[in-house]
Amino acid sequence: MKVKAHIQLKKLTKSYQEGSKNRLVLDELEISIREGEMIVLLGRSGSGKSTLLNLISGIDKPDSGEVLVGGTDLTKMDEKNRTLFRRKNIGFVFQSFNLISTLTAHENVLLPLKLKGDTDKETLGKADQFLEEVGLGDRFDSYPDLLSGGEQQRVAIARALASEPMLVLADEPTGNLDYETGRSILEILNELVRKNGRTMIIATHDREICKIADRVVELQGGKLQEVEDTTEVI
Amino acid sequence: MKHSDTDLLWLSSLRFLWKHPWHFALSILGVALGVSVVVSIDLSNNSAKKAFSLSSEAVTGKTTHQIKGAAETLDEEVYRKIRIDEKVRKSAPVIEGYGRIEGMNRTFQIMGVDPIAEGPFRNFASQQAGIELSSFISGANTGIIAKSVAQELGASVGDRLTVSVGGRAYKLRLIGTINAKNDRSQRALENLLVVDISTAQRLFNMEGQLSRIDLILPEKNTESIVTDLKSTLAGGATVNRSDSRSETVAQMTRAFELNLEALSMLALLVGMFLIYNTMTFSVVQRRQLIGRLRALGVTKKEILTVVLKEAALIGLIGTVIGIISGYFLAQVLLKLVTQSINDLYFVLSVQELSIGLYPLAKAIFLGMGATLIASFWPAREASEAKVSTVLKRSSSESKLAGRLWYFAGGGLIAGLVGVGILMIPNGGIAAGYASLLLLIVGFSLMIPLMVVGMAKLFRPILGRVNGLIGKMSVRGVVTELSRTSVAIAALVVAVGATVGVGVMVDSFRATIVSWLEAQLQADVYVQPPSAVSRKADAELEPRLVDLLKETEGVANSHTVRSVDVSTNYGTDNLVAINQGASAQKTYQLKKAEPDFWQQYTADNILMVSEVYAYRNNVALGDSIFIQTDRGKAGFQVQAINFDYASDIGTVTISREIYNRYFDDRAISGLALYADEGLEVDQLVERLRDRAEGLQDVFIRSNRGLREASIEIFERTFTVTTVLRMLAIVVAFIGILSALMALQLERAKEHAVLRANGMTPGQLWNYVITQTGAMGVMAGILSVPLGILMAYILVYVINLRSFGWTLQLMISPGLLLQAIGLAIVAALLAGIYPSLKMAQSNPADALRNE
């Protein structure tokens, strides 16, 4: 059964201990995201973008506040259940691709599907389809170390979308790519996410990405501020 | 988790192992070596036990009870009394001893029997078995052997065999062969020479005497029959159940076997450290990979399971290889174990390995168990790591750096608990090993802190010697402490174990050498060849003794008689000495009553060896009751002496007192003093000339006997030395695998260095300096741990196993050898990765995965 995608962060606070000092990264942060919305999360390096994505995906826990994803409060769940929730509902695209080096491109895409427990025939079909869609239909059996950066990121996109998550999180998806490759990756991401009706949050410091966003928010001083005029930031 | 989910994770794991073949192979080798040592020791111990029980079953037959004399012999008159007066029809006289058949390179058990009485007892020796009675008891020397032995010897019925007993050679006619019914009987009989009673009496110089009388008593009224028999037996003869002998023998070798098993377990423990080390590496190498999987929704339990499955695979392959190689190693060890048993305890000939299910089951359990236990913590660490931090590499290093003191504190506590266990009075051998294990673990936990400390010392030194590269190398050891400290800890334990066992053997040797110096006061020693090297169980011919004593140049002499007697503690070795006052110089006493030497020739007092006192919990003032030819007599323990000749212990009395209680006048050994000014070697030559043609005896100078004794000692420790060598091999491979894995894993860092302008030669220098520095650290740290292990092995485990007081002997050579081993292996470990990096294109390593 599909859960209605609706993300709500309430009074989210997170701080880190740095030596004897306590550094507040997120300070009673609040945001509501509609189903199918594409959000670009802007912020300088170290502003807490990755921390926020980790909290939304349940990788990390906040000091206080609520993380509601599709009506489920992740902060009330234990580590195991958060992992199982993430497995079923969240897709990831990382800056450094983070493919599993010991699996082929096809197996990398297959992995989240298998983890979800989808049946083999169905799974194989979805993996094939997404790899074709990102333009890697001829690289099924290639290991990550034989793929270029752009190709690796395309595999990562296929992997994030193949399991039909209600939310896709992308952390600096073009950060490790050249300008041209970055643009093409963004195009693929935008097209596929919209085509499949997924909700997506892209964390980046690259303001050009704002072009594809439905809404742009900027993380400053631990709080989110809506950027009304995206042309201003580009 | 469904089956299909695991497949991809498992596939990923298998590919990881496949992509790191060195690592995979060395992990398997670590398990295989540990298992191999345990299997080989178990198989050889079991084979020796099995061979003993088979031959014991064969010679005991259906006997239920045995009558034995007070000393080694029993008057044959007793047999007549039992059979005719007491009407015990199922009784058979037996003479037992050892000898060699010319052409066969092993000792045979010679059994003198009466074939007429044998029927109910032993099929092979009875008239029914087809022994031709007229030839067998013809009065000439005749005998029968197993058919297989005759074939091996190339002898046929009617041929003459030359049999050597106690240095005397006899001709014996082969009048038949024994056909074994099955393989089991075949093995039991292949070291047996059966002769008739009168032939045996001639061979063993036992006219009118028997070794024992075998009885089959009815199950009903056994007790009352035994009581009746006891009342009729005179002269200290006793009736015992036939299996009590096997029990005594089993007890004799218990400590010997236990120590071998413990040493083999030590090899497994070293193996466990290697497995722990390699598994930790394998996990650390995959930190980021694991982080990615966790981010994708793989649970902790799934990570733990897959890492443990990997360990199980390594364990399984290692165990199978270990069992197979253990079987081959056992073939070598069996010879050594049998040789040691022959030197120390009793005659045993083992022709083949017997493979039981138990050693195999134990190997599988230990191999798999040790691998899983050693892998559990790395696997757990892998699964417990926080996903958000695991994706960043530096986090684990800062975590360990912050915990250095906690680890060291934990190590100190483990060590103190170990010391506490040592303090428990009468703690037993198991407690000794438990504390040894705790001290090893405790020391290992302190290693990261010690490495950091040593690195501070090394940095300026290597900086001066090797410039910036030298400094960088040492710094690299500290920055990657979570990996390097585990590798160093594994090496320290492995090398430390070799130091520990080496120091123990050296201590034994030094103690025995200094003890022999004191013990061997006379100039020349005369002994008949004995079946058991450390036991004087043969006799010198009286004529020869007189002749040698009267030889020109002999100023003085004393004799020794050694027999097995029954005491209230079981069967003990009793030694009678007629040394007079000079004995005071020979025997080093641990404890004694003040006027012991003044009284020992006149009173019923005796001296026991410290091993005897320890085994039987005997103290000064206690009494020992010895079964003598005059009945049971009580003797008071008035001295405890150091004695390293026997781990069973001896009881020593003066010959004057012995003669009062025993009819035996035989002599087992003769010690002679040369006239002043006479060269000892000259006297030895003269004595050898005089003995020519009389009895084949060993006539050795003081120095010669000392050398021969040390040679026997070395031989009995060959098994230990072999095990130590194996531990060294395990340690060497451990060092190699740990450091090689570490360097191979740093390929990317090396590529960065190359990209920044480091030449292949400089990279080689960097890698070799770093592994060399780690080798030196491991070598240095293995010395205190090795000495600590040696201390426990010498002062606790040996004392608790055997009761010996040894001097701890630490030779600098041995310690240097350990450090050298660590350094050489470390340097060798650096060669492959540095060559590989120097030859490869740094761009490949710099590519993102």
Automatic annotation (TrEMBL), chain A:
One of its GO terms (molecular function) is ATP binding. Keywords: ATP-binding, Nucleotide-binding, Transport. GO terms for cellular component: membrane protein complex. SMART domains: AAA (SM00382). InterPro entries: AAA+_ATPase, ABC_transporter-like_ATP-bd, ABC_transporter-like_CS, MacB-like_ATP-bd, P-loop_NTPase. It comes from the Bacteria. The keyword Nucleus does not apply. It holds the Pfam family ABC_tran. The keyword Transport applies. Residues 7-234 form the ABC transporter domain. Belongs to the ABC transporter superfamily. Macrolide exporter (TC 3.A.1.122) family. This is ABC transporter ATP-binding protein.
TrEMBL record, chain B:
It is a multi-pass membrane protein. Residues 263-383, 726-842 form the ABC3 transporter permease C-terminal domain. Its main location: membrane. It comes from the Bacteria. It holds the Pfam family MacB_PCD. GO terms for molecular function: transmembrane transporter activity. One of its GO terms (cellular component) is plasma membrane. It is found in: Cell membrane. Residues 25-219, 484-689 form the MacB-like periplasmic core domain. The chain crosses the membrane at residues 21-41, 262-284, 311-337, 357-379, 400-424, 430-452, 485-505, 722-742, 763-794, 814-832. Keywords: Cell membrane, Membrane, Transmembrane, Transmembrane helix. This is FtsX-like permease family protein. The lineage of its organism: Bacteria, Pseudomonadati, Balneolota, Balneolia, Balneolales.
